[in-house]
Design a protein that fits this description.
The complex is a heterodimer of chains A (113) and B (112). By secondary structure, chain A is an all-beta fold. Chain A is built from no helices and 11 strands. In chain A, a hairpin with an 8-residue loop joins strand 9 and strand 10. The model of chain A has no long low-confidence stretch (mean pLDDT 92). In chain B, the strands form 2 sheets. In chain B, strands 2, 4, 5, 9, 10 and 11 form a 6-stranded mixed beta sheet that branches. A 5-stranded antiparallel beta sheet of chain B has the order 1-3-8-7-6, with no helix packed on it. Chain B starts with a strand and ends with a strand. With 112 residues, chain B is mainly beta. The model of chain B has no long low-confidence stretch (mean pLDDT 92). Chain B is globular and about 40 Å long. Classes of the chains: A mainly beta (113), B mainly beta (112). At the A-B interface, strand 5, strand 9 and strand 10 of A face strand 4, strand 5, strand 9 and strand 10 of B.
Chain lengths: 113, 112
């Protein structure tokens, strides 16, 4: 199984809503990542978890809150987002942090109204 | 400042041609370099990963090279097919702390 799954595929939320994005992998990878990708732009790294511990936070606003409940799951909790946060949110995993091939999920397309 | 650049931004070639995509990076202290493809509205598919100690990697019709001294990587696609049409992104990893920087991509179109 070389798949990273993400749910939901699409999400529309208001600026006062609280929602969560979910990412799951069963490849035994110990590094997981969240990226944000705006239209026609490359992905931008948001967070890195290594062995379930947050190892990188790329100065992401606190309205984005990551969580890694176990080695297979990665969540991104969203609260009080702004319209400019609308983007494709990609999750990825690798055997170890950054040293090996990253496998990406299909992404969650988020629209903030 | 660490930057990764890809030129051209878009490329269109007829089917069957061999082609080269370019990637350059400003900081030669690169840990590894990955090439990805992305279809519209989809996630990224890893194509090849080159560790800093390696010079090239091959997979099928794809060959990627890495020259740290010149700050360049190339992705060679042999005998291009319409199914190769996608955006190709290169990404450099700096330090084992996982700082990953993507280039802006080359949008490739293969004409039948």
């Amino acid at each position: 199984d070389t798949e990273v799954t993400q749910t939901p595929k699409h999400l529309v939320m208001g600026m006062t809503n609280k929602k969560s994005l979910k990412c799951e992998q069963h490849m035994g990878h110990r590094a997981m990542y969240w990226y944000k990708q705006k239209a026609k732009k490359p992905p931008e790294l948001m967070f890195v978890y290594s062995y379930e511990k947050l190892s990188i936070n790329e100065s992401v606003p606190s309205r984005f809150s990551p969580e890694c409940p176990n080695s297979s799951l990665l969540n991104l909790h969203l609260h009080a987002l702004q319209p400019e946060d609308s983007a494709l949110y990609l999750c990825a995993s690798s055997q170890r942090a950054a040293q090996e091939t990253q496998y990406f999920g299909p992404g969650t397309r988020l629209l903030v109204l | 400042k660490q930057e990764v650049t890809q030129i051209p931004a878009a490329l269109s070639v007829p089917e069957g041609e061999n082609l080269v995509l370019n990637c350059s990076f400003t900081d030669s202290a690169i840990y590894n370099l990955q090439w990805f493809r992305q279809d519209p509205g989809k996630g990224l598919t890893s194509l090849l990963l080159i560790q800093s100690s390696q010079r090239e990697q091959t997979s099928g019709r794809l060959n990627a090279s890495l020259d740290k001294s010149s700050g360049r990587s190339t992705l060679y696609i042999a005998a291009s097919q319409p199914g190769d049409s996608a955006t190709y992104l290169c990404a450099g990893t700096y330090s084992s702390a996982s700082k990953i920087i993507f280039g802006s991509g080359t949008r490739l179109s293969i004409r039948p």
